[in-house]
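Annex B, item 7. Sequence and structure tokens for protein A, then protein B.
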Amino acid sequence: MKQFSTWQVLKNGFINQKGWKRQWEDAAPKKNYDIIIVGGGLHGLATAYYLAKNFKLKNIAVLEKNWIGGGNAGRNTTIIRSNYMLKGNREFYEHSLKLWENLSHELNYNVMFSQRSHVSLYHSPSAIDNASRRYNIMLNTGSDAELWSLKTLKKKIPHLNYSDDSRFPIYGALVQKRAGTARHDAVAWGYARAANNLGVDIIQNCEVNGVITKNNNIVSLNTSKGNIQGGKVGFAVAGHSSILWQMANLGNLPIESHKLQAFVTEPIKPLLDQVVVFSVGGAHFYISQSDKGGLVFGGDIDWYKSYAQKGNLPIVQDVAECAISVLPCISRLKLLRHWSGVVDMSMDGSFFICKTPLNNLYLNAGWNYGGFKASPASGWYFADLIANDRPNRVIQNHNLKRFEKGYQIDERGAGPDPKLHG
């Protein structure tokens, strides 16, 4: 497969873009693979790529029930950050951000990573004091963090609602400048292309309908394209983890599947250079502006459990109210589209990358709101787990047994309620 270059881009500009070839092969499944990754989203593709790149493994397949980039990978708000505090999370997300910083060069594919700053607004002096602890931990563990005064914030983002009688008075912000956004589908395409270039079979429209086990191992997977045998199997299917878990007769996972809606407005002139976030008084909101000019934003999950990938009016109203409360100038904009992704919310708000009760099955699940930003590190650590059959020390406590041990990794301190870990 040819490497992208400036010369190729210029050349194809003169020939109506007719010189490009398929970026990855749409493989037909073989009867047997050494490693099968179920789920062709960002985490599954990244895992296959790092298995092939870091460990030089061959005979790997990625099974995707739809098309690459057609699931949750293309249904998020593209935010990337590493402002986590607790042990395990802190190192994991910082490693992910470092991988993001070089990802376009590594994959030879422009994932459009833009380090435009993640700005968390705070609405009382006590809120800033409380959040400063998190950002001091970030500074002391090799990351970046800043505290912006109200004066600085007004200079950087003049369009926010700074009025004294605003619904959420703004006192300042905590900022991570290295954070930002990327283009979600480009990341999926980049990983698919790079993995396929290393010999990974990308098998689309291949849904797993059954899991056959024997002697505490997965023997094969029944799929819409036939029976496929695998030496090792990894589940990386986001909000549908519970379905495959039950297919393997493993009972219930400690997660709930909820809808998380996202919105895009009609395109406008450049207005917002940063990612702006606030969470106060039951309201939760985040917004950025895409390269095409649309404002991309979202808020709380739907509290009822669902596998639907469509929005509903109550959340539209809730998120629109949050948007206008902090950015009144956008009140006349029209929504271009909105949609929903399915997120698997864990009991403590943190993920699972771990071995399972079956000897050759490995689990990647429970990503809550953190799935997109985690993609590179998720693939990196999941590949390491599958290849070496043991967890890296960074993720050693991100397993299913942590609740038995009373070891919660709860960033928000919200307690054992999946709905509260937004």
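Protein B:
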Amino acid sequence: MKKIFIILPLFLSGFLFSQKKPQKSPAKKGTVAKFNYHDEFRKISDEILTNGKAYDNLGELTKGVGPRFSATPGYAKAVEWAEKKFKEIGIDMIWRQEAKAPVWIRGKESLQIKAGNGDWKNIRMLSFGNSEGTGGKDLVGEIVLINSTSELNAMSIGQLKDKIVFVNVPMDPKIINTSDSYLQTAKSKLVSASIIAKTGAKALIIRSLTTANDDTPHAKMIYYEPEDKIKIPALSIGVRSADELEKIVKKQKVTAKINMTAESKGDTTNPNIIAEIQGKKDSKVIVLGAQLDSWDVGEGAVDDGTGVVQCMEVLRTLKALGYENNHTIRVVLYANSENGGQGREMYAAYVKKRDEKHIFALGTDAGGYSPRGFSLDMSPQRRRLVYPWKEYFLPYGVYDFDQTEAIQDISPLKKLDIPLAELVVDTQRYFDYHHSEQDTFDKVNKRELLLGAVAITQMIFMVDKNW
């Protein structure tokens, strides 16, 4: 028996080691080797959640640079900062693209109200961006309250002449998606200075478009029509002041005194900042977009410092992982998004003129909150290509691929038939801080910010691999 046990292992070992190593079956022509996307998603997530720089970069941008309103030293400082950060990542292709930007100076501003024969009371306020001022003189008039378009339409000719129109319309709390609620209110003709001016009114005051229950005023952009003979000043007040003012106006005559030195001083140029990692396979472009400018109040953290640093994080992560991208992956940090939008128009014109082939454009401009999905503004055929990717995103809490509008700085690219996508986040807190002095670094959660960067990088990876 012992001999058998000695011989048998020798026999088996000889048999086993005499076998040839199994040969890999040659891949069929035209097929791609199977790829483990779950593993690749995990590599991206691990890199960003462990080594991500987005939160630190946001701190630098908000605390080191601060407000970055168009045509100000703050914006010029942000441009230099962005170029420096791209170089630190190891990006070689960085350039500026000049776009027209209006020069608007807020100056000093004040609002006072007086009920009946009482004393003047100061109310916190913010001028609309690009609003005409009062030339530093007091503009005084009786306040007329309007709560709906039907009330406005019912006003007879002359009822609003020389009055100051006060519009107290809250964002609809029944609409779960706060971005939809904001847009619905923002597009109302009640908050249009041009339409109100046509009634003969001499100023417009609106309730801030916010979900917060505080007295912080939130800025809004004004658009005067070319045919406007008179450009009236417009301003916003906090929701608590708005509700209190409505109660007073319903009881007695209320007079307002507005003093604004806001003024426009023509146009200048501000640059978009563009950085890219060139494709190894072809020159087709996948573009990421975020706005570099911010309002002149606050620090521009959630709007849109978070988007800026998330786009940077995508490039940093791909570099750190040694990823060999098929297509060119480009980041555009847009100028003049808040008070004109010329930066996005300039980039779209650049793409059209050069006839550059863009296969995908993704934007992020809803704050650095927990990612929930992607809005796919593209043809049904393209959307169907993305849907099967859901299974890879689900472990990261990213599930919503049903929305179909991308409404930010990438939107002009839609005219060029470029598929668009926007990062969808939990926006319930976004409009608490939007366009206000409350938009500061401390409102951003580090983990939420990094998770958004994870989702964006994963989406860019999938498009690069499959399109």
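Comment on protein B: The chain is about 35% helix and 20% strand.
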